[in-house]
Design brief:
CATH superfamily: Ribosome hibernation promotion factor-like
CATH architecture: 2-Layer Sandwich
Helix content: 25-40%
Number of helices: 2
CATH topology: Double Stranded RNA Binding Domain
Strand order of the largest sheet: 1-2-3-4
Order of helices and strands: EHEEEH
């Protein structure tokens, strides 16, 4: 999995970067094939905007935007929303009878 963390007009400390990386590693618990995760952090007029762009194999990407006054609060809210979206996708794939492309067998005509 490829992880990119970008900050524009915001300085990231080592603790903040480590917090984001540990949160991204926690996304793997859902068993989805994550190909890449991009985290973009931008300063706005009032606060900070955090965007997670999560690319998943054989599915549409999950994009989460979160704005808040404080950087740590925005990151935590975005991580919670991303976890919720990935959990929903995992449940949809596993419990609703969806089969992956790997599981499909070719039919002989």
């Amino acid at each position: 999995m490829n992880v990119q963390i970008r900050a524009k007009d915001v300085t990231l400390t080592d603790n903040t970067r480590a917090h984001i990386e540990s949160a991204v590693e926690a996304f793997e618990k859902f068993g989805l094939e994550l190909t890449s995760v991009n985290c973009n952090i931008r300063a706005e007029k009032k606060g900070v905007n955090v965007e997670f762009d999560i690319h998943i194999a054989h599915a549409q990407p999950v994009v989460i935007n979160q704005s808040d006054d404080e950087l740590s609060a925005a990151i935590d809210l975005a991580v919670d929303r991303a976890s919720k979206a990935l959990r929903r996708l995992h449940t949809k794939v596993t419990e609703h009878g969806h089969t992956s492309l790997k599981d499909l067998e070719t039919l002989d005509a």
